[in-house]
């Protein structure tokens, strides 16, 4: 999808601080000087093209339930297979291959710590691979949606 | 550590009308995790989906923001689609006494989007400080890391750069929804 100036403005202005009011898209429309309907259509289109995943609240992990970063060392030739198995485990919302012996990194979430531990135990048993469990100890910097460097992307 | 029943402890009061239904708030959480509806009155849509009133939904979202349960309200960008394909997790082994000051230095770099302390898992995993960098170009990200190390004098702390090579899944946390 080719983004025009208005799409970029939407992304520049509204990664955070969306106002909570009856017609939030109308407020965005006023600021961008386009009809409310066009704001909604553009957001729909950005979502359909996977430029945004949603217009959302982003919940604070530690307050919204239990979550953990974990990694496994999969034999390189089985990486895709193991990744698919990880994706099938309940509560996995991020799963990336990374350049390391521990080559699959995923985030698992659950309603509470006990459920999370059970799910990890079950997955570890299923995969029979060494697993790192790396819960967050302290948070120093939160992603509040960084400014997109459109020039670097062009 | 907070538990998943936190949403019950943060049930907002609306003056004159009593507390909002806890069941309704759980349903609201489930719907909100999928994002704000793209309808002219998204809070009214959420109200219709949860059995709350539009005002109750807005009050709940306001309070959850104030209490930090919601950390950000806005467009959630998929950086990979936009072209941010050089996504690096940089991990550091920092003595505990230095951790806070190093974490603050790293967090101050404009290209660092997240910075967390996590436990070491010796002998396999000696690193206790994690940061994320979303970059457009691998060489540029490596240069940014080198500059950070030089300018903040981080040479003494062993580090590793783990670029991501493939995204098998990337979506928002689903803590209470069933799908």
TrEMBL record, chain A:
GO molecular function: lyase activity
EC code(s) of this entry: 4.1.1.111
InterPro entries reported for this sequence: AsnC_trans_reg2, HTH-Siroheme_Decarb, NirdL-like_HTH, WH-like_DNA-bd_sf
Top-level enzyme category: lyase
Domain Siroheme decarboxylase AsnC-like ligand binding: 66-135
Top-level taxon of origin: Bacteria
Catalytic activity: siroheme + 2 H(+) = 12,18-didecarboxysiroheme + 2 CO2
Key words of the record: Lyase
Pfam families reported for this sequence: AsnC_trans_reg2, NirdL-like_HTH
Pathway, per record: Porphyrin-containing compound metabolism
Boundaries of every Siroheme decarboxylase NirL-like HTH domain copy: 7-52
Function recorded in the entry: Involved in heme d1 biosynthesis. Catalyzes the decarboxylation of siroheme into didecarboxysiroheme.
Subunit details: Probably forms a complex composed of NirD, NirL, NirG and NirH. All proteins are required for the total conversion of siroheme to didecarboxysiroheme.
Family: Belongs to the Ahb/Nir family.
Protein name: siroheme decarboxylase
Organism: Marinobacter salinexigens
Phylogenetic lineage: Bacteria, Pseudomonadati, Pseudomonadota, Gammaproteobacteria, Pseudomonadales
UniProtKB/TrEMBL annotation, chain B:
E.C. designation(s): 4.1.1.111
Siroheme decarboxylase NirL-like HTH domain: residues covered: 32-70
Pathway: Porphyrin-containing compound metabolism
Reaction catalysed by this enzyme: siroheme + 2 H(+) = 12,18-didecarboxysiroheme + 2 CO2
Keyword Lyase: yes
EC top class named in words: lyase
Gene Ontology MF annotations: lyase activity
Pfam families registered for this protein in UniProt: AsnC_trans_reg2 (PF17805), NirdL-like_HTH (PF22451)
Residue intervals of the Siroheme decarboxylase AsnC-like ligand binding domain: 82-168
UniProt entry keywords in alphabetical sequence: Lyase
Subunit structure: Probably forms a complex composed of NirD, NirL, NirG and NirH. All proteins are required for the total conversion of siroheme to didecarboxysiroheme.
Family of the protein in this entry: Belongs to the Ahb/Nir family.
Function: Involved in heme d1 biosynthesis. Catalyzes the decarboxylation of siroheme into didecarboxysiroheme.
PANTHER family: SIROHEME DECARBOXYLASE NIRL SUBUNIT, TRANSCRIPTIONAL REGULATOR, ASNC FAMILY
Annotated protein name in UniProt: siroheme decarboxylase
Organism annotation: Marinobacter salinexigens
């Amino acid at each position: 999808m080719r983004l025009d100036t208005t799409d970029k403005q939407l992304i520049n202005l509204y990664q955070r601080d969306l106002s909570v009011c009856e017609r939030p898209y109308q407020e965005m429309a006023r600021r961008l000087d386009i009809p409310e309907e066009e704001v909604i259509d553009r957001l729909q289109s950005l979502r359909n093209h996977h430029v945004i995943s949603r217009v959302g609240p982003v919940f604070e992990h530690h307050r919204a339930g239990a979550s953990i970063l974990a990694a496994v060392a999969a034999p390189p030739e089985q990486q895709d297979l193991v990744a698919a198995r990880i994706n099938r485990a309940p509560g996995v919302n991020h799963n990336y291959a990374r350049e390391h012996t521990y080559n699959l990194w995923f985030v698992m979430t659950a309603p509470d710590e006990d459920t999370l531990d059970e799910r990890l135990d079950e997955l570890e048993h299923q995969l029979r691979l060494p697993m790192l469990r790396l819960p967050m100890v302290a948070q120093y910097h939160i992603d509040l949606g960084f400014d997109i460097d459109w020039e670097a992307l062009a | 550590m907070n538990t998943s029943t936190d949403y019950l402890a943060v049930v907002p009061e609306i003056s004159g009308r009593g507390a909002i239904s806890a069941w309704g708030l759980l349903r609201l959480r489930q719907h909100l995790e999928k994002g704000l509806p793209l309808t002219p009155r998204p809070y009214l849509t959420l109200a219709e989906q949860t059995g709350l009133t539009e005002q109750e939904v807005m009050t709940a979202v306001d309070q959850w923001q104030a209490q930090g349960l919601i950390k950000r309200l806005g467009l959630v960008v998929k950086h990979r689609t936009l072209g941010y394909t050089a996504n690096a997790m940089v991990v550091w082994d920092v003595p505990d006494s230095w951790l806070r000051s190093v974490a603050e230095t790293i967090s101050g770099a404009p290209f660092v989007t997240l910075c967390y302390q996590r436990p070491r898992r010796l002998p396999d995993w000696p690193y206790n400080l994690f940061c994320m960098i979303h970059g457009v170009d691998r060489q540029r990200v490596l240069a940014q890391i080198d500059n950070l190390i030089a300018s903040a004098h981080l040479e003494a702390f062993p580090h590793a750069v783990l670029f991501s090579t493939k995204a098998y899944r990337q979506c928002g946390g689903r803590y209470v929804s069933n799908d």
